[in-house]
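If it is no trouble, might I ask you for a protein's amino acid sequence along with its backbone structure tokens?
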Amino acid sequence: MSSTKIINVLKDDSFAEILALFKSTPAGEVIFVLPKRSKAFQKEEHFALLREAANEVDKIASFLSSDSKINELAQQHDFEILLARASAVKPTNTRVGVKIKSRSNPISVVNQIESFYEQPLTEEEEKPVSVPIQIRHEVEEEEEEQPQVSVAPIFKRPRKRRLLYTFGSAGVILVAVLVYLNTGSAQVVINPGITQLNFQLNASAGENIASVNASTLTLPGQTFTVKKSVSQTFNATGSKDVAQKARGSITLYNKTSSAQPLIATTRFESIDGHIFHSLTSVTVPAAKNSATPGTVEVQVIADKIGSDYNVSAGTFGIVAFKEKGDTAKYQNITGTSSAAMHGGTSGKAIVVTADDFTKAKDLLTVQLKQAISDEAKAQTAGLKVINDADITIDTPISTAVVDDAADTFTMTLNGTLKTAGFKETDLQQLIVGYVNNKYNLDIVAEKLTVIYSNVKFDTTSNTLHMTVAVTGPSYTKVDEQKILADLLGKKEAQISAYLKLLPGITSANVLLSPVWVRSVPKNSAKVHITVTR
């Protein structure tokens, strides 16, 4: 059977509060008792919204008001109008939720208690009120005593039965008293004052820092280095008349026990008789043993212009040893190319343009940064890296440069990232400590906005330096344990007076339950304090 809830509307209650209360009550029927003047239900749209809500939650709403205008608007929206009685509703200074249960027979106090325990207990509804300090209760309306009508002669009951009823009633009352004394609880919701933060701090993170220090603005960091190389072959798109000598590199081998110096322009001869000159002076190291010759690489250029000098990979002899008849050195100090000589041409030829070279470099730069970023994420899982784009990129290495004759060229790009990562939770701890030390306020780190700038990594000390800009809300400190201890056992007037004196509190709501409780329990386990942040 659905219950009925009577809501006494105060003159300062807003319609939004009344509508929320109507929706949240579990009762199937709600009676609104209105004062002569009330902020709520002064507009026709209030009744339209209430009708829409009543249809949505399948509830019946009725009005008890002495205001003819309100009654007329209520009737227009199909709400039932109840006739006002002098004793129907007694206004109080708090909003009261009353549950009505219908009875057809006269009842006594004992009967009320017995009836209460014969039926399942129901949890009374809790209704928050938006005022700075609000102490709320729900009270159950006492059922009206109906005059007893004599329908039969009064018979005198036997003495034993009267004793049985007396002791039974006393037992029920005793149980009711125990429930009264032991089921109380209090919910306290405190809204602290809010201050908007907007500040900057210069923090450092490094592997030589052991723990978070809000005074020195330092936090632990982990140094790591990522090196990557990318390479790709590109087509040359230029064309012009050129007269160009072939180029390449030769690896020299020395099987003798003595190092051999060679001056620039030293001549090297391929198997097919093409002469190339070294571009720099080199010294070929002596052999370490009979199986490990000394080696060195040297760049060479063709003796003459033309494509004939684009010879295939092969071995080279040193012309000077051959001309001197120094057979031992000629046979034991030799050269080998691992790739064909290239670039030798005369006449019309395809060449590498500046645009070809730049586009190749730009493309490889994007690939290199992505490769380093991916590797950095893999190495620093769980750490915050704020300068993963601060990469050192080496000069490109290419098989052909601008204006070189070549159908294609291969470019290689190498890069390095060296920095320090840190835990975001460590930075949040640092900010919490900084705000506590400087402003004596509480914060919720997840509600802050953090922006990094001036990020620099010191390779000497392996320390990351950064400027951290912080914005967001902070809250007045609330000593929950002290408030809990102070509120234990306090009555309503004392609760209100105490909470009003708390510094930095914008508002507080206190809910005492069940309906008969008029003070905070003395058992701290039954008092719950919540600070909204």
About this structure: The longest strand covers residues 238-254.
